[in-house]
Amino acid sequence: MLPNPEDPPAGWPKARRSALRVLAAAGFAVLTVITAAVAVSAVAAGDVAGAITFGMGAIVLAHLTGMSVNIMQRPRPADHPPVTDVNDHGETGLAFRYAFWPYYWLSVVFAFFTLGAAAFAIVVAMQATWAAGVLAALALAAAALVGWYLVVLLRLAPGRVVLTRSGLYHRSLFLEHFVPWDAVVDVVARAAPSPWITVKALPMDQTRERRHTGRMGGFEGQALPFMVVRTQWLGADALPAYQAIKYYFAHPEQRTHLTDHDLRTNSDA
């Protein structure tokens, strides 16, 4: 295979606006308007329960619309200097933190789904039938699962990529992963419907990983021992993060500058 003359690919990390994604965003938007209209009608009719139910539904659908649009947007160029942060062992390095808006959209959807499933379980259980009991149990299980994901998501937030003298550390939504520089064999900018950075790495004793949700660790956990960073979550820092990882991978002699003193000195300068 011939090397890619463009590194990263032209337009990267812009997400591809497939017809399915555009239709999904438009569909969520239409459903939001319809559900909001039904909620307003329920208020006018004095139906408090209906107003609350459809009002919450409209909020969830509005956030699904926002999340769908956010996924398709190209991140704005970074307008802030690099920052420092620590990895899971307290080692300071150059850091690229996850953006706020993807967290906001997903967290609100998770929260309302959890509340809605729990409320549905309570209402259904009051019917005191065998079928209602099964539905209530399924709803409670769904609420517990998504609620657990939400707690882990917020506990690990904000995610980040930290470059230190010893290696690369990535804290994603549900996974913590550290790869020593000696294990890295390549760094690739993947152009896809949802672009990502792939750090190809060999399994080594110094590699560390912690799956906070077990085998249900999401996209990043499926690529191990490779490190995968989705650009949607890095936002404006996606391109600078890729360039920094690529640079320090190609120039090992420069990694000695990834110390707290050197990074702070460069930042002050």
UniProtKB/TrEMBL annotation:
Ranges that cross the membrane: 22-45, 51-72, 103-124, 130-156
Assigned keywords, A-Z: Membrane, Transmembrane, Transmembrane helix
Name the record gives this protein: PH domain-containing protein
Originating organism: Mangrovihabitans endophyticus
